TrEMBL record:
The keyword Repeat does not apply. InterPro entries: Mce/MlaD. It comes from Stakelama pacifica. The keyword Cell inner membrane does not apply. It comes from the Bacteria. Residues 38-113 form the Mce/MlaD domain. Keywords: Membrane, Transmembrane, Transmembrane helix. The chain crosses the membrane at residues 6-29. Pfam families: MlaD. Residues 307-329 are annotated as: Disordered. Residues 318-329 have a biased composition (Basic and acidic residues). This is Phospholipid/cholesterol/gamma-HCH transport system substrate-binding protein.
Amino acid sequence: METRSNHVLVGAVVLILLAVLALFTVWLARLNGGSEKQYDIFFKEAVDGVNKGSPVAFSGVPVGQVKEIALFKPDPQFVRVRITVNSDVPVLEGTTATIQGIGFTGVSQIQLDGAVKGAPPITCPEKDRASVCPLGVPVIPTKQGGLGALLSSAPKLLERLTTLTERLTELLSDKNQASIAGILENTNRLTDALADRGPEIAATLAETRIAIQKAGNAAQQIGELAGTTNRVLDQDVQPAMDNLNQAINSAKHSMDTLDSAIGDARPGLKTFSNQTVPEVNQLVHDLRNMTEALSSVAQKVDRQGAGSIIGAPALPDYDPKKSPKQPKE
């Protein structure tokens, strides 16, 4: 009985020690977990080579590991990768996550980079927390890496290569090959014809060069002629135009003076026309009458002498024959 009691006691002590060790391990894990931060990364591409426990590096420096990989149930096209990193890692706004292969082993890691100096850390805001942090932890945006970009663009590249191959096949069909052969043959004929006409072409080029040179000389002469014409206009025509302008200005001044003189003489001319001209006409009339009277006196003196002016005129002799007849009773 005593031996069995000892065994029970020893077993109880061992169980108690194991329980204490387990509690210590859990406490230590929680203690270590308190110095780490968790982030979610949503990849819209394959995460080949990334497994639970895969390393997480920040600019090539190991800072944590992958804790969980699962499909995002609300949108299965995304793969959710939860990572844990040391609390002192500067996961700031601008930081992005990519999948980077490690050598040629097929193993990949999560690469973080792109943190902006002075930017705030990536956290879950109080506003729109459910949309920004759907699973309660901050989300690091993704960026396609070199291999991921190559793999994502591979289907488009293959499609373009297929299209290019089909077009090359159509281009190199029998009909097009015959056409290309005809074009090459015509090209050869044209080359031979040009080779045969080489001297003529050279002569034509020489004549063209001479014509261009003559045209250049003609253009230079035209330029010189234009310069001479400008000088003639400046030296000869311009002075003549200045003299003509002076003459026009003098004539205008004379016309202005004449207009002023006519304006000043207009009242005297009006008086002369209204008063002096009638008086002159009367004077001329009186002079004409006086001239006629004097002419009559001169003629009388000439015929009858000077006494005709002083004495009475003589009576004519009586002639009975010329006497007037008496009227009958």
